[in-house]
Specification:
This protein is of the alpha+beta class and 193 residues long. It has helices spanning 71-84, 91-95, 103-109, 111-125, 162-176, and strands at 8-11, 19-21, 24-26, 37-44, 48-51, 57-58, 63-65, 132-142, 150-155, 181-191. It folds into three domains: 8-65; 71-125, no CATH class; 132-191.
Length: 193
């Protein structure tokens, strides 16, 4: 599903009454909601959303995102752009066809184009939420205790028991390397790639 709790959404204005969108009927009494903005309060496993403002359910096919940006935020982002890049590399500067038209003048004459550039800059530079995943690793260590240096590690594949994986990895490693080694199991959490 596209949205999460707290997201601002807008009901699409091109929806047709008494038609199904994502398995949910857009009933005639919902027609008055076209173009209105709502806040997602619940994401249901059935593929629909509940919103704060009304009792009707909506699907991804009925909604579009609301891009909200205050004037203050736009000014701050544009200032960050000016601080971060050279004018010759700026998307606003590239739009100016008239070399005699200064940046400030262009911005005042083309606020819609400039706002789109600022929104894109924001989107491109927003800090993405870090996604993680858990895994079980077998590590081969030098020596006879858990203080040895790790010389090999691999993830336990699904379907293989930890014990079997620990034994298999150690045997495979020792077949190709001389010395004393032990294997250990550890759970890790890593950032998804």
């Amino acid at each position: 599903m596209k949205y999460k709790v707290g997201d601002k959404v807008k009901v699409r204005s091109d929806l047709k009454c008494e038609e199904y969108y994502g398995g949910v009927l857009f009933a005639s009494e919902m027609n008055r909601f076209k173009g209105m903005e709502f806040t997602i309060t619940r994401v249901n496993n059935g593929g629909y959303y509940e919103v704060l403002e009304v009792i009707y359910n909506f699907t991804d096919e009925m909604l579009e995102p609301v891009e909200e940006m205050s004037a203050e935020e736009a000014i701050k982002i544009q200032a960050e752009m000016c601080k971060s890049i050279m004018c010759k590399d700026c998307a606003i500067d590239r739009l100016r066809c008239d070399p005699h038209c200064e940046c400030a003048e262009y911005r005042s004459k083309n606020p819609d184009k400039v706002l789109e550039i600022i929104k894109q800059w924001k989107k491109d530079h927003e800090k993405k939420e870090v996604e993680t995943e858990r895994a079980i690793m077998v590590r081969v260590l030098v020596g006879n205790d858990c203080n040895g240096k790790c010389v090999h590690e691999e993830e336990v594949p699904s379907g293989e028991t930890w014990e079997r994986a620990q034994e298999r990895v150690l045997k495979e490693y020792c077949e190709n390397h001389e010395g004393k080694y032990i294997s250990t199991i550890c759970g890790i959490c890593r950032v998804k790639e």
